[in-house]
Amino acid sequence: MSDHLISPSLSAAPSVVPATRTQAVVGAAVLLTAAALALGALDIPSNAGYGGVGPNFLPWLVAGVLAVCGALLLWEALSGGFRAMDEPSGAARANVPALVWVSAGLLLNAALITTLGFIVSCTLCYLLAVQGLRRAAGQGGGSARTWGVDVVTGVLISAPVFWVFTQFLAINLPGLTQTGWL
After folding, report:
1. How far is CA 134 from CA 51, 131, 142, in A?
2. Is residue 182 part of a domain?
3. How many structural domains does the chain have?
4. Which range of residues forms the domain containing residue 73?
5. Does 90 reside within a domain?
6. pLDDT band at 5 (very low <50, low <70, confident <90, very high)
């Protein structure tokens, strides 16, 4: 490994990517996100609960870590740009149809979870998201067998999650029936 990949002080090295405005914007956006999270954490009570930490501990922790990451990103961008970056991979343009499939899965899940229940709506979300990802990878829509495997996989993922939350953790999730098992 050459020295310019290790030492950030060698900004004159020929393979070092120059700083760009976009890189600085990314760092600033992460810092703003940390500030917004910290501002939201101010409204959460700090009463110590189980284990001696209050409910605002995790938001403050995440805000702090984001602030450190944002500051490092901003420093990196302003001191010569992100170093040793690989060339961007993937397509030159966004795959809008794949985005529509994934977005439809998320939106339908949110819209139908109280009507269809957690297991069915999350299975539908999984099915549509996988279809979008397959299309983005150039694999097409697949056969009826592929769709069937995706439905079964979605159920095998969402059902145990539902049961763990409702039966073992006693957290209410919308079900299809009142039994707590579907």
Report:
1. 44, 5, 8
2. no
3. 2
4. 3-78
5. no
6. very low
User: Which residues, 6 or more positions from 180, have their beta carbon under 8 angstroms from its beta carbon?
Assistant: 166, 167
The mean pLDDT of 136-161, rounded to a whole number, is 89
Cβ 37 vs Cβ 63: under 8 Å = yes
Task: For residue 141, give the amino acid letter.
Answer: G
Place of tokens 């769709």: 147
Please report whether residue 51 resides in a domain: yes
State the Cα angle at 149 between 104 and 112, rounded to 5°. Answer: 30
In this structure, what are the phi and psi dihedrals at residue 80, rounded to the nearest 5 degrees?
130, 0
Which candidate, 71, 174, 168, 171, places its Cα nearest to that of 121? 174
Which residues are within 8 A (CB) of 67 and not within 5 positions of it... i.e. 6 or more apart?
31, 34, 35, 38
| 85 assigned to some structural domain | no
CA-angle at 158, arms to 181 and 62, nearest 5°: 120
Burial of 45: CB neighbours in 10 Å, binned 0-12, 13-18, 19+? exposed
6-36 tens-digit pLDDT: 444 444 444 444 447 888 899 999 999 999 9
pTM over 0.70: no
The reply to whether 57 and 122 lie within a common domain is no
Q: Minimal CA–CA distance to 114: which of 174, 165, 166?
A: 174
pLDDT digits (tens, 9 = 90+) for 69-109: 999 999 988 887 777 777 777 777 888 999 999 999 999 99
